[in-house]
Amino acid sequence: xxxxxxxxxxxxxxxxxxxxxxxxxxxxxxxxxxxxxxxxxxxxxxxxxxxxxxxxxxxxxxxxxxxxxxxxxxxxxxxxxxxxxxxxxxxxxxxxxxxxxxxxxxxxxxxxxxxxxxxxxxxxxxxxxx
Length: 130
Description:
Layout (H helix, E strand, L loop, with lengths): L1 E6 L4 E14 L2 E5 L6 E5 L2 E7 L4 E6 L2 E6 L2 E5 L3 E3 L3 H43 L1
Parallel strand pairs: 1-8
Antiparallel strand pairs: 1-2, 2-3, 2-5, 4-7, 5-6, 6-9, 7-8
């Protein structure tokens, strides 16, 4: 057995014992078992599958990240992760959740651009009147 610990920026998303992990790295998919050599890789956005301590396969989706296997613990650090009861439900959850997140990020970038434009405009007015 090995421990799988998934960390998001604000909290620990998952902390469980697992038998096996399958994930998608930027260079392709891979599997990890308890006696696997220590390992570090960047994760692509995709599905991370694992077999819990009872041997039941479970899945979660991650939005990019880093995976570190050190001794009997696998750490995954990611900005976003979702988990659902099966792959079909996970697909729907991912589409809804990740698309909402991308829209929020787009709105934030638009707001930041407006703030920068306002700052530049006021700075130019200040120089012109100063």
